[in-house]
Amino acid sequence: MSRGPVRVGLFWHSRTGTTRAAVEMLQAGLTARGAKPRIAEIRPRWDLPYPLWLALSFVPGIRFPLRPVPFPPTEFDRAVLAFPKWTFAHPPVNAFLARWARSLPPTGLLVTCGGWDQDRYLVGYRRRLERAGVEVRAALAVKKRDLPARATQEALGRFADRLL
Ligand SMILES: Cc1cc2nc3c(=O)[nH]c(=O)nc-3n(C[C@H](O)[C@H](O)[C@H](O)COP(=O)(O)O)c2cc1C
Fold it and tell me: Which three-class secondary structure state does DSSP give residue 60?
């Protein structure tokens, strides 16, 4: 079996750019560790205004239609699923999981948030992945205001180490 660099697919959704910035930091950390990361946006079929996303996010498990992902998670040795904390549910991510959870390689879960109730949210999504048979290697919540902090950079580095 050939043993080239570890291929990591980073699948992310970001409405206002925070998760995207965290994913780019993680991507740099993975590259520095010799892995080969590629990023793919999870895009809802239509964007909605904030009040509608907020309303939908109160319905646990609700799914929202997606555009096709540019490449499937099955092409990778590892995956990262990165998205913002939205109340109880992230409808586009729920749709992504309904389609792909059963074929995810060992995965890291990265959530950004304003800073309320993110640990329970992270545990909820972790359990959903594990119930689908996914090995969750790392899980991290990053508060938006902490994104520039050195501690966040270090936490993302530890996340990359556990994932690989
Ligand atoms: C619909 C909606 C619901 C949210 N609910 C929460 C929440 O329950 N807890 C929290 O800490 N942040 C919540 N936030 C804030 C986002 O998680 C936070 O700003 C995040 O970093 C935004 O990421 P993004 O820029 O990648 O979209 C919510 C944001 C939106 C749009």
Answer: coil
